[in-house]
Amino acid sequence: MKRKIELLAPGGDVDSIKAAILAGADAVYCGLNKFNARNGAANISLGDLHGIIRLAHANHCEVFLTLNIIIVDSEIPALIKLLNKLVNTSIDGLIVQDLGLFYLLSKYFKGLKIHASTQLTTHNAGQIQFLAKLNARRVNLSRELNIHEIKALTAVANKSSILTEVFVHGSYCISFSGICYMSSVHGGNSGNRGRCSQPCRDRYQQTLVGKNYPLNLKDNSAFFDLGELYDAGVYSLKIEGRIKEFDYVYTVVKTWKKQLRSFYDKNELANDNTDLYKVFNRNFSNSFLKGDINRDMFIDNPMSHSSKHLSATSDYASHEQMTEAQMALYEEKEKLKMAIKKEIKPLSIAKIPLFITISGQSGTPLKVVLKTPEASFELHSETNLTDKGTEPLDDKALLSRLKAIDDTAYFIERKALLIDSKLYLPFKELTTIKKKILFVLNGSRNTVAPVILPALRKQSPLTNKPTLSVLIASIEDLDICNDAFVTVYFQLPNSIKNSKAGLIDLFKTNKQLIPWFPSILIGDDYADALELLDQVHPPRIVTNNSGIAFEAYQKGISWIAGPFFNMSNSYSLLCLKENFNCYGAFLSNEISEQQIKAIKKPDDFHLYYSIYHPVVLMTSRQCLFHQISGCKKSRIDDHCIQECEQYASITNLKKIPFIVEKAKGNYHTIYNAANSLNTEVVKDIPQLFSGFMIDLRAINTDTQMALDKTSMIQLFENYLTLEADAEQQLKESIQPSINTQYKFGI
After folding, report:
1. Domains (ranges, CATH) in the chain?
2. pTM for this one?
């Protein structure tokens, strides 16, 4: 008997959720109007949620709610208000990105199950253990992983009682999730806030190899890889598409459900995926899953491939026949929409009507009779009604006590008050009756009392002058270390396979150097990074990877969370401090002056900020040069990662250029043409930061420095001492530059 694999479907609106349930989804994930990473979807209201959960559960389908964005402090009260409501529903899980929300859920809302979002781009064993410590029940693994990597991580997850889910159908992102800032920098629409404008799908000026959409990938489909995913131990197969329409959701879920049944019942897989081509698609690829990252993963058109696929797979005698076939496909899709609409219409998510009769006489208990279309029940007060008191029992008094029913799956359709208006009952007795009613309406579960967060204490301003730190990536820049007043970080590449011995020797010889670990460390690259950590055992590190953070915590190594941890609120800092003994953190460069000012740092915790750096827009496991300048190889191999060095640029139709770089040992990265220079933060928010960083790595953007690196460091040091002319000199010496994220925030 095969174990069952969950089929997890997207629900961008109520009709899509109904379509997913109708098509046989085992679970559906959906978002409310706030706090979710698909603001472009219609989403659902909190009022709809109870009915959706009831409908889903009646059809053996679970409901997961997406709260998968980073959060700022001003939103915490609204978030707590929402969580206080959700904890009294039957929601099956919350999908989370923000570490502050992990902290709040783990500490105050233990009844809510936590699922780690794909936005956390989980891709190594240490990250699984990091999330396990934060009480995650399941994790969505990075889409870039191959089946062997998925199997290895699933084994690690299972040891920590964590389930794994994998995206098996729908859009690919060209960037690793959660660390893409292209939409944020250009347009103020942060992908970490659910507002990604998908600039990777935009048309660009034609590249050297004749491509107009050089960053556009085909869609993901692992339809024929079900057996391998089963053998890897994956618990859930996740379909992407919360901005897709209900007919898309129905078709994809139904097709996948049919494939699962064939696998369970016959131990065989269908070899026909025609129905998947009838709804929106950009053609399909399973190359990440297969570990074959190649040029065929791209498609030079972001629009639906349905008609093209029909033309490519059929032999038409004339153009007229092809047009007729395309019209027939269109008519088939319209008929399917109408048929699905007809089937989902009777599926009601309306609240259940509740009829309440309240009666009693002086000297007798108050009697409350509640009736629903399916059942009825009766309650009595524990004390008797009296003709003396402070507030008589009337409609207004009773409705104010019973308004909590509005937060359940029920609504008061009709009430009857059959008592003398001059009778009284103690307030605490009415509260007890309310609790009894909610207990019954809530499936015989006690209502969880609202959480009131204790106020966070604002720390005293720092009195010491903030220190200056410098990020380098070249041994040639080691002379910078001679300045005793500058902390020097050394950037490690994504893969140190060919340079591990040299790097270990570098850190052992130059003990003042602080290792700076990258965001992405997969498979053997993660193992090599751990070996370096063991061999060097530095007194302190900076890491952008939570797996390395977990290992540093385990080994007693002081660690600082890098900028790509996306720290944006006070509770995310508490999460790192209390759970992982974190020394300090860089705040996200996405948040604004006002959003930074609202943050309260924990005791004995250090805050840092990068005031000058090339702006990373995205990092990709795919080769970006296939579509831009061309590449002799058709696919990526290990030699590409270790040895390839290339540089190119692309320009969108608004004439905005982007820099594409591949350095030895690193993945492909897209940078903004102009670097970020933020001198304002030093003046705007004095006495908050322990240190400021400048990034002097040799990234070839359009920004030019008029002075050599040593002189630039001195100029930044002068500015930190508030020397009068230093700021103007910096702006004149570093051109062009931007500071848009600090101005607008998220």
Report:
1. 6-172+218-270 (3.20.20.80), 352-441 (no CATH), 467-613+676-744 (3.20.20.70)
2. 0.95
